[in-house]
Design goal:
The complex is a heterodimer of chains A (about 425) and B (about 260). In chain A, β1 and β2 form a beta hairpin. Chain A is built from eight helices and 19 strands. Chain A has about 425 residues and is of the alpha/beta class. By secondary structure, chain B is α/β, with parallel strands linked by helices. Helices cover about 40% and strands about 30% of the residues of chain B. In chain B, the strands form three sheets. Chain B has a six-stranded mixed β-sheet with strand order 6-9-10-3-11-12, sandwiched between helices. Chain B has a four-stranded antiparallel β-sheet with strand order 2-1-4-5. A two-stranded antiparallel ribbon of chain B has the order 7-8. In chain B, α4 crosses α6 and α6 packs parallel to α7. The chains are: A alpha/beta (about 425), B alpha/beta (about 260).
């Protein structure tokens, strides 16, 4: 038998969690022990240090039964509440919704893993695999159009927990629906949310995922999203981050069928010492597809932003249109951003573009607005909202946009 | 006698980073109901005067005073000056993608009203006002709902400046090279808009390089600004003389 050297950091991290109780998790646990937390020497994590997470000390949550008032955050008739990674069907309501929703582990989860593969070498994936409580599995049946939307509210409560959310969604052939994910805090602090999502978009299906991230300012979030698209499908993912300590979003999309469309929109509005890192990866494996990406950051105080958008166009994937845009506004001298677009193109009949701009608010525009009687703060708000509105508009659902605007006002004092 | 609306005394100003003096003891008093034209060669300080009076960053006032209807403008931020009733029509109106003309003007009007302790304007009254005031410069009201100046032609941008002036109803308006980039039709429309806005209660300062605009907006006084000072003042005939003879004879006259 091979002896595995366990990294000190991993050993310390799992020491407060204990071995998973469930026998079936043993192999996942053993696999986890063979991995280590990434460092800045790791290219994929170059600009994001995970010390705030790898320091450990987190505990596993236990099932709660208190009611939680989430009225401020509910934007859909059908919603599922997940508290610290544990499903709270007792305070959820979605009975009228025509989706098949199940809470599963073991073989059902692994079967889905065969459809949408995980990156087994990623420590956060391994951690989730070893410790998630139950996975939410949603099947959107063939031809189901405009059900819902279903809102999933991930709420953190208490202090020092690690929440391992696991969600697996299959959008069957010719279905077209939206899922809203809202990450919120109710008196939560210093938690770590480790979110793992897998989406399988079948032939001719359309799936839209809206994600609103508003953790406590001491809570970190790593969200890993694995997507597989079959022919003629459309996948949209919109993400906005407004609060949290360290937020890292990994979105990996394998486009395996022809005539697919892929849209990624993102915005980050930061303050204090927030760190927001969006890593996206679109793998164009076949011909005749398009992907369009637009991420915008508004960075205040001493916060940092990271954007890394990678597109690969494989050798036989002809007639691909891939667009990527990243715009950043630095509101303070201490805010920083690292922006890295990566295009790897092996095919020859391809249209790809990327642009990245970083700057301060346009001084001439500021003066123009002020010269009309608008205060400096008001002018700033107008320009910032103009800058990120095209991303916010992509949320398209009016109740959701209203929630986003309320949260921006609450967290950043800006009314749009 | 009508009251002095804008009173500039011994104004000295320099560009902040360069420490280069641009205005060197400028005096100008403008009374209610008057239109003053400020002409002068390139580099005389005309646009700097507009920037300094309206409160643009990047200039340092080293001496002198600027007051409007008794209020000390130099103590105020640019937006407060506007709230007090100062208006600057920009030589190069800025394009602001994503901010609609209407949204920003309504924000401005409501901030100004709040500052003056007045009630904010209702959406209905505001839209009625947009329709009425866009007619002043024959501007298509549809332009009002577009992003500020984005994709506007040169003429549309200048019309938009005067439209905003009509909406904000300032005490003192400074029109900085409003005639530049205008064809003759647009010039006529813009000038007629300005004439409609002239009243006994406001004052207009026209900064221009050419006499052409003054055929349409007839000034009460014409000043020549050279080397940071007003070096000559006359009536509208001075503008004609300048058009004919250029500026050299004045600078020669001063140096003589």
């Amino acid at each position: 038998m091979d002896t595995v050297t366990i990294s000190e950091k991993v050993e310390k991290f799992v020491s407060t969690l204990g071995k998973p109780l469930d026998e079936s998790r043993n192999s996942a646990y053993q696999h986890l022990l063979g991995l280590d937390f990434p460092t800045s020497r790791d290219e994929y994590w170059k600009y994001t240090r995970v010390g705030k997470i790898s320091k450990g000390g987190f505990k596993l949550p236990t099932t709660q039964s208190e009611r939680i008032n989430l009225n401020d955050y509910i934007v859909a008739n059908d919603y599922l509440v997940i508290e610290n990674g544990i499903i709270r069907s007792d305070i959820s309501q979605y009975s009228k919704l025509n989706f098949d929703i199940e809470f599963v582990d073991g073989e059902s989860v692994q079967q889905f893993d065969n459809k949408v593969e995980l990156n087994k070498d990623d420590i956060f994936t391994a951690l989730n695999d070893a410790y998630f409580s139950k996975a939410v599995q949603i099947k959107i049946s063939q031809n189901k159009v405009n059900e819902g939307p279903l809102q999933i509210i991930y709420v953190e409560q208490g202090e020092g927990f690690v929440a391992n959310n696991r969600i697996q969604i299959i959008a069957e052939k010719s279905s077209s629906n939206e899922i809203i994910q809202t990450f919120v805090s109710k008196d939560g602090s210093s938690n770590f949310v480790n979110h793992l999502a897998q989406y399988y978009v079948e032939e001719n299906a359309q799936l839209t995922i809206h994600t609103v991230q508003n953790q406590a300012e001491t809570t970190s979030l790593v969200s890993t999203t694995q997507v597989k698209q079959e022919a003629n499908s459309t996948f949209r993912i919109n993400t906005i981050t407004m609060n949290g300590l360290l937020i890292r979003n990994n979105i990996n999309i394998a486009v395996e069928g022809q005539n697919c469309e892929t849209y990624m929109n993102g915005a980050a509005v930061t303050k204090g010492k927030m760190h927001v890192d969006n890593h996206t990866f679109v793998d164009h494996q076949v011909s005749n597809c398009m992907s369009d990406e637009n991420y915008k950051y508004v960075l205040g105080d001493q916060s940092t932003g990271v954007f890394n958008g990678k597109v690969i166009v494989r050798q036989d994937a002809q007639v691909i249109n891939a667009y990527q845009n990243n715009g950043n506004i630095l509101l303070s001298d201490q805010a920083t951003v690292n922006s890295k677009p990566e295009l790897e193109i092996y095919a020859d009949d391809v249209k790809c573009s990327h642009g990245s701009t970083t700057g301060q608010l346009d001084e001439d525009a500021m003066f123009y607005l002020q010269a009309r009687g608008i205060s400096k703060d008001g002018a700033k708000q107008l320009l910032v909202s103009a800058f990120i509105n095209e991303v916010i508009d992509s949320f398209s659902n009016p109740q959701l946009i209203d929630l986003v605007e309320r949260l921006i006002e609450k967290e950043h004092g800006w009314s749009f | 006698m009508s009251k002095t609306l804008l009173d500039i005394q011994n104004l000295h100003a320099e560009i902040e980073d360069e420490g280069k003096a641009i205005l060197k003891g400028l005096n100008l008093a403008v009374k209610a109901g008057e239109v003053h034209a400020i002409m002068g060669p390139n580099g005389a300080g005309k646009s700097t005067l507009a920037s300094v009076v309206s409160g643009k960053d990047g200039y340092e006032v080293t001496d002198g005073s600027v007051s409007m209807d008794g209020a000390d403008l130099l103590e105020m931020d640019a937006d407060e000056r506007a709230k007090e009733g100062l208006f600057l029509a920009f030589q190069y109106p800025v394009e602001i993608p994503g901010v609609s003309n209407i949204n920003f003007l309504r924000t401005a009007i409501n901030e100004i009203r709040e500052y003056r302790g007045e009630e904010t304007i209702s959406a209905k009254d505001f839209m009625a006002m947009v329709r009425e005031k866009s007619a002043v410069v024959e501007m298509d009201p549809k332009l009002a709902s577009r992003s500020v100046n984005e994709g506007f032609s040169g003429g549309e941008k200048k019309k938009n400046e005067i439209f905003q002036m009509a909406m904000l109803n300032p005490k003192v308006a400074i029109l900085d090279e409003t005639d530049s980039g205008l064809d003759i039709d647009a010039l006529r429309i813009v000038a007629s808009g300005v004439n409609k806005l002239r009243s006994e209660n406001n004052a207009i300062i026209i900064i221009t390089h050419y006499q052409r605009l003054l055929d349409y907006i007839v000034p009460d006084y014409v000043h020549v600004l050279a080397d940071g000072k007003i070096v000559k003042t006359g009536d509208k005939n001075l503008a004609l003389e300048l058009e004919e003879k250029g500026y050299d004879w004045i600078t020669d006259e001063i140096n003589a």
